[in-house]
Write a structure and sequence with these properties.
2 copies of one chain form a homodimer. The first copy, chain A, is mainly alpha-helical. Among the domains of chain A are: about 1-50 and about 570-740, Roll (CBS-domain); about 75-300, Clc chloride channel. Chain A is built from 27 helices and 14 strands. In chain A, strands 7-9-10 form a 3-stranded mixed β-sheet. The first copy, chain A, has a 3-stranded mixed β-sheet with strand order 12-13-14. The longest helix of chain A has about 55 residues, at about 70-120. Chain A is elongated and about 95 Å long. At the A-B interface, helix 1, helix 8, helix 9, helix 17 and helix 18 of A face helix 1, helix 8, helix 9, helix 17 and helix 18 of B. Chains A, B: One of its GO terms (cellular component) is lysosomal membrane.
Chain lengths: ~750, ~750
Amino acid sequence: MIKERLIDDSDGESENDQTNILATQIQIPPDDVVPVFRARAVRPQSKYEGLDYDICENQLYENDLMKNEQHLKAKKDFARWIVSLFIGILTALVGCFIAISIEEISYYKYSWLQKAVQQNIIHGDLVMPYIFYVITNALPVMIGSILVTYVEPVATGSGIPLVKCYLNGIKIPKVVRLKTLAVKAVGVITSVCGGLAGGKEGPMVHCGAVIAAGISQGKSSSFNKDFKIFRYFRDDHEKRDFVVCGASAGVAAAFGAPIGGLLFALEEAASFWNQSLIWRTLFSAIVSSFTLNLVLTAYHGLENFTYHGLFNLGEFEALPFEYYELPIFMAMGAFGGLSGALWIKSNTTLNIFREKYIKQKWIRIIEAMMVAAISASFACLMMYLINDCRPLGNDPTLTPVQLFCDDNEYNAAASLWFQTPEQSVRSLFHDPPGSHKITTLLVFVPIYFFLSNITYGLNVSLGIFIPCLLVGAAWGRLVASFMALEFTGVKFINPGKYALIGAAAQLGGTVRMTISLAVILIETTGNIWFALPIILTLTSAKWMGDYFNDGIYDTQIHVANVPFLSWHTPNKLFMTKAKKIMSEDVVCVRMKESVEYIVGILKNTSYHGFPVIDQVADNDRKNGRLRGFILRTQLIVILEKSLFEETKRFWERTISIETFRNEYPRYKTIDEIRISRDKLAQKYTINMEVFMNPSPYKVNQLTSVSRIFMLFRALGLRHLCVVDENNLVTGIITRKDFLK
Amino acid sequence: MIKERLIDDSDGESENDQTNILATQIQIPPDDVVPVFRARAVRPQSKYEGLDYDICENQLYENDLMKNEQHLKAKKDFARWIVSLFIGILTALVGCFIAISIEEISYYKYSWLQKAVQQNIIHGDLVMPYIFYVITNALPVMIGSILVTYVEPVATGSGIPLVKCYLNGIKIPKVVRLKTLAVKAVGVITSVCGGLAGGKEGPMVHCGAVIAAGISQGKSSSFNKDFKIFRYFRDDHEKRDFVVCGASAGVAAAFGAPIGGLLFALEEAASFWNQSLIWRTLFSAIVSSFTLNLVLTAYHGLENFTYHGLFNLGEFEALPFEYYELPIFMAMGAFGGLSGALWIKSNTTLNIFREKYIKQKWIRIIEAMMVAAISASFACLMMYLINDCRPLGNDPTLTPVQLFCDDNEYNAAASLWFQTPEQSVRSLFHDPPGSHKITTLLVFVPIYFFLSNITYGLNVSLGIFIPCLLVGAAWGRLVASFMALEFTGVKFINPGKYALIGAAAQLGGTVRMTISLAVILIETTGNIWFALPIILTLTSAKWMGDYFNDGIYDTQIHVANVPFLSWHTPNKLFMTKAKKIMSEDVVCVRMKESVEYIVGILKNTSYHGFPVIDQVADNDRKNGRLRGFILRTQLIVILEKSLFEETKRFWERTISIETFRNEYPRYKTIDEIRISRDKLAQKYTINMEVFMNPSPYKVNQLTSVSRIFMLFRALGLRHLCVVDENNLVTGIITRKDFLK
């Protein structure tokens, strides 16, 4: 008998964490009862399961709807709006907390370092400041890395791949838990303050998703507290819909781009158009943007409200471009794609190496600290060697460092380092021409490219939007400088514009996002004239980059073996039929099935859904007419609560859909359920009719894969039954079947 | 035998227009062959049919794909991008043509009127100017109305309901024809220049849709010219996808809001997320916006590029709002909803009246001219009676009229009339406080409300966005004036801000658009701070308005009896089963069916699709296993080209999917096809296997309507087969079944 490791359908608590319950007393059914397990072809396994987005419209659901139809519907709709409002507000507040903390801590750190440099340089001693720099980098990073490594590993990295997966319909354990949020927020503060080459935007999106999942369920697994509200939102469908709101609120807060946030969530969920959900999502995003703007403006005590979100590219005047610049922009886009592809390749190789050889937790922490030290070292080296002196007042750096420059001058190379990466990006966009020596930028680009490359993949919470923008802005400005040299006498070449295009190119070439990124950048630049250059640049970058490899997030997801479904059917599967990709190893249950058999299949398979069949010849459960579909979680609850046909009179009037909702999302495993021996001996049965989904989606085995894929993606399915011309079950398709 | 009027599946040429072909020589099959026509329940009829959006993946399609797979795919993808580019460019050029024509003609008209007033007022004679005004109104309107009434009636009105219907999946005859485009463009110019209370935005969206449909097909029905390109785009699926691009390009050109355009198209198509289509749609929209900006800027000879689309609300400074203003905005929104509901009710009643009693074409033209005259009369009355004199220079009106004011003053009441409505909206947004007397606005609002109400529904090409914005901006400014009176000493109340909110409220209350309108307004105001007030205002307006009736477009569509599917299942149908709404009167064909029978069903029913069944007991075509689905248009082509089983060896190698594509979209009717008597006598048969869709979507008869509705909407279906547990066909569902 094949004993598969049972996969918990909860948010992924390993079985060790479960309290020790009396071992079940059931017997393993004899072989002839469950012959199907001696399968030749085993269904593809993955440790990641899908979300049950499809609504199970069984009799309990219908009863629930009919009970207090109008009243409950209005109440639920109102609750959805309230939850969306709070998702927006809380996401923004978390964003403010992160932004303000980073700002303040960075300011103190760099002011202190600046003073240390100024004081020590008189003695000609730069070793002390260097050591201070290393320490002020490594210490926060150590804290952040410890948190991520020991407290909540899921909080590592950007968080955007996790949110993408969740919206794609994949259940990654612990992705949307409060503990994850806490570690993520604190972690990103420590990482950015620790001078690592990264940003806070990706983590902000993840935070938004967690907040949404958390509020909407009205209970916290981390704190084991149930507020007993929003019980009607306790299923995968509602939760995923709220995470759509949360992700868009996160993007809105991170970039000050609510419409970009909406499109990001839509692009990743990529299912069908749900008008009311999308309206609420836009509302969430706008509330998030607004709250963040309000709080940050109040915090900075500004008279006029000019703050436009965390990711403030600053205002661009109506700076149009010449028609001959468009091909240049496209070339820059292509270069960004190339550069991005290279970045992805090297980063992925490095991470695979890390996965294989750097396994111990304490070594990962040391590694993170070392990278922080390396960042400091490169910074100091660059500042020391390049004497890029500019008169004060030109650059709005908060902490200008004089170094070896004359009085009333500051070192422009140093100013790239002695501030947060985001502030550096802003400078590169807005500094007047000639603010940086060509050498400075020429050296900075490969250094930062290298640093960001070794940083992404560390056990820290950090995103890659800002480093990509920074590298791109730097080489973009370089392009402008070269053009100014080459084509003197030509109309004025605005370096800020080229910095913007370079940033878009590099970012687009790395993350390969199209629609949402275009809209985010258009919104953030606040200038509709840049829409065309931006979209051309991103398209070039994507086409060039896609020639070599996938975007960084998709690559990460692929390397992690997550069954992620892209937007289009894989090319080679285009005209294949369902029959070819389906799993023939499908385990069915009869409409009235014995408890013994149910227990057997739950114990001996790891499948999460079973077609319900009838008209079975003898015990041949392989050939039956499809009548419905039942989930493992439902069977678990049925067994746990003893909802048997024979004891119907006891539970018939008392159960409702709440019986099932209350168990969500932590269901017991089959091993934890006690079924008394006599029930098995008396051959109790379960009547699926009440509980099953009576109209599961099904396709004929000759349907093309492209059609099935579209259905799967559009409806957010987890299982799809395959039938023949007589409606007999011949196979089943889950997302993993598309990726074989 | 029931003889239904055969509905042409073409773009709606009535049978009169068809050239007279020899009457077919077939005999009507005897009753016992087609017993099913004595149906008790007749399927719901509507003169509007659905689009065949679902791709028919039959053997011909597969052969075509396999033939030159990679090469053709790349070629098609490239072609799609080229078409999208040109959709954007051409839509913008048409927009420029319309905008520039209106601007120039209006300027000349009002300058001339202004001079006429100035000259004649010295004599105290205002009758001549008045008569001139009436003539310069009525004449263009007469031209426009003649065009619309006699040349192309489909071009009447806004055009947005037609585009909504098309994206909804309904085939309205002649909606996307070149002739329609021409009449629309010229018509809207005449209407706006004729001083009617309307705007050009809706017609612009329609123009975009026509351009898209036109270019993508590579041929023109109006000019009977086939350029023989893009033949692979000749089906409903591709055409509708391109119309998505075109509609968004139209919105982008009309409002300078490409992202709003994208969301408008997505909201109306409301199907599943198609990544590449949406990327191209955004590209189209941005190209459209950019081209329009470029051309208009060049035309105006401006140094700096500030022009932001036709619908230029002008720049708003970062004008935030106080927290106590938010409830005021929401109240204004609610008032807008109320006011909009009233507007819709009266306009709809008037239009129903027109439909019943004003039927002759020449009377409609007279009516339009009368309304133009009435507009002029009201304007003159208002200008004459209200002496709202302001010092020159305050108001950037191009043609200020002095009337009874002192020298160096101008009549502000007149300035509301002596310019295009769009220019008036802009003034109301940007004029400094005190530019208009309260009396002026107090009188203007009901006048314009009334005028716009009697204008919409005339036989002219004209939209309602601008009149709604104008009315709303006026009463918004009134609110600001009242508040300034009441709360003197409170912080400065910016009337422009209130004008914007009032405009949003009135427009939202009338059209009840949410997502796309919010994004359009946010983009157009160019100020992210207004996102929150705008979304709150629109939400209030929608909730308040929806309490009374549907939005104007939806009401029009409903009154026209178009089988339009909204975003959500109708409430009362929520838990109903498929069985209840399906049409049991379904006509099936066997896998190998006699030509006689096929001809019979084509002649005697008006159905457009037939399930293909097998395992039929005797001749009982009612109970068969569903094997596929065949469309009327396919059967027509099969009969026309004699693709019979018995003559297979003649055509087997020569036909391909092109055989069917070439006939699109004008198929012959069954009456026009000659089938020789001997073929019938020899009992020729058609083998459906090659031609039919082998994997049609189907649902079990116990599936809930909400599930079916979602499937229908998400996949853009036209037919959905209903089967029982044994896969036997029991019924069929089309969109009309949802609306019973």
